[in-house]
Write a structure and sequence with these properties.
Elements: H1 16-38, H2 41-48, H3 52-58, H4 62-86, H5 91-107, H6 110-117, H7 125-150, H8 154-178, H9 184-202
Helix pairs in contact: 1-2, 1-4, 4-5, 4-7, 5-8, 5-9, 7-8, 8-9
Amino acid sequence: MTETAPLQPRGVRLPRTERRAQLLAAAQRVFSANGYHAAAMDEIADQAGVSKPVLYQHFPGKLDLYIALLESHVDELVRRVREALASTTDNKQRVPATVGAFFDFVNGDAGAFRMVFESDLRGEPAVQEAVDRATSASVDAITETITADAGLDEDRARLLAVGLVGLSQVSARFWLAHHSTISKEEAVALTSTLAWKGIGGGFPLHPQG
């Protein structure tokens, strides 16, 4: 059982949106500590400082709670990507901003990015749909920007968007697992240079001495 104290004493009435956020925060702690299959609704209710009936008023079952939490993490990632794209009108700067959005998300709450990118419940259709949205909504946002600003048709813009999302997501996850010698800033810069210039343009061949 995790040791984090309940967010509120039992019996305290909260507005529905605040209570929902409290329950999701408690669920995140329990799912992160135990995994989905070992997590118990009893423990989540205890972590949130509520009774099980209160928990079930908001989420009919553990899977419903898991999906709601997963959806909130997907929303957060997509929000970061959209904010990165809107942060500048310079496409050269948009690339590191967008790559950085993925690195920031992965470097934030480890439980959040693992639910989105490494969920062990992908056999559940609703979970797979949410996981797929993390990629598709990010691709959609980047496609819109490339189509509007780079003069490409949608098919070509979408192909580039898929490449940028895939590069950013995989690189960020690899960096998190092996980042002992590379700072996040350097990792974002390296990945962004590759995305913007390619290996040939960004890292020309040096003559062998």
